[in-house]
Design a protein that fits this description.
four-stranded antiparallel sheet, mainly beta, 472 residues
Length: 472
Amino acid sequence: MSERRVPCPSCGARVVEGARKCRACKAWIGERPRGSSASLSGREPRLARAAVSVASGLAAVVIALVTSLKSPVGEAPPLTALTPEGGASGDEVRDEAPNPAAFGPDPAPPPPPAAPTGRWRAREFRIGDVHPLDVVFNPSGASIYVSGDDASLREYRLDTGEIIHKASVPAQGDHIRLLFDRYVAVLRHVDAARIPVMDTTAWDRDPVLLDVGRSPGDIVALPDGKTVVAATTDTKRVTKFELPTGVRLANITLPHATGQLFLVQAEGRPYIAALGALTHAGRPAGAWIDLFDPSESPFGATRRSIAVGREPREGDITADGGAVFFPDRLSNTAVLLSVAGVTHTRKAPVGVGPTAGYLLHDDRYGITLNAEARTASVIDLSTMTVKSTLPFRGEPRTGVTSPDRRTLFVALGGTRWPPTGSGVAVIAGDPPKVVASLPTGKGACAVAVSKDGARAVVASYWDRSITVLEQP
């Protein structure tokens, strides 16, 4: 059966009856192709040709105008090649995906911004065959005291890394405290019942042992220059000792474990603020601060307890001693407790998992280190609102402020023990921000700053090293 042919409405060429496209002029017959914006039926060839003529004239003007302008995006990609005649069905229009090669290679992503280093530079020295646990500065700023996991206390010269003194102590120093710019107290929080106190003017003598009770928590020096107060967690005792004899002068037992001691100013004279907590079935069950005058007799007679939260962590006191600032890890809040007169508390929500709190710039800002969030929350203490959140490059472990309280150094070792993180962040400025991020050895576990604020050091557990931060 022969095919019946009819003339093309556009050019008159003979096409098969029912065809949708003329093979001679490529014009569509009957239905419009997908994507066209107007319908040109076979009954309107003259109108279509007229419209095309008018459009051609206008297009010439438009092209002349457009080509006189410079495109702000560069050259267009090449057009997709037409399907050769007979290569595909004339009634099928393909929605081809763009060819990536036609657009050239993807632009390279911009490099990450360089970490600010501020005015600080870092250098490192090794301390031999011992893992450092904590570090404090000699008052001169020329050397540091380091507690080691071999139950030793050592002194190193900062300029050369040379060891100057070494003494064996009865316990590893999880933390060490400098008392009266002369004695170094070595705190072992578990498996210990005494606090060794080393006289750094007499390294050839054995340390004085303070019998404080099971699980020492903290120790502070009193303004008289000769007595100290120590606290324990398991036995819940707070005890007063005399140095250098180590004689126990008095003690009291509190209803809760005391982990931190602060020397504050209340009612116009020095007070002890003992921050402690209770646990029930291994879970936090409340926290209190006990305030009392350590000079009154009997010891602790004026004690009063103030409920302050659920799980307080490392805190700081204001420059005038009239308030204590600390985070509560369980409620993710920062607490400012005024103790100078009538006690009252103010709180602010902070980042997840706060583990320490510090004060900067004349106590205008409080900063919490949020371990789980890997951030620091900057709090405006006048309104107790979070002013900004500072991200860290690692998990913060602990920090220390310079004596003028304008700079905070943060060790980024992480909260696990032994720590595995590395690096130190320097926070400064008004408002505070991270002004430097510097490398350290693996396991940044402790940080200290000199009395003049010109140097800071970070102890790294796994690298057995000390990183010294200095200003050029």
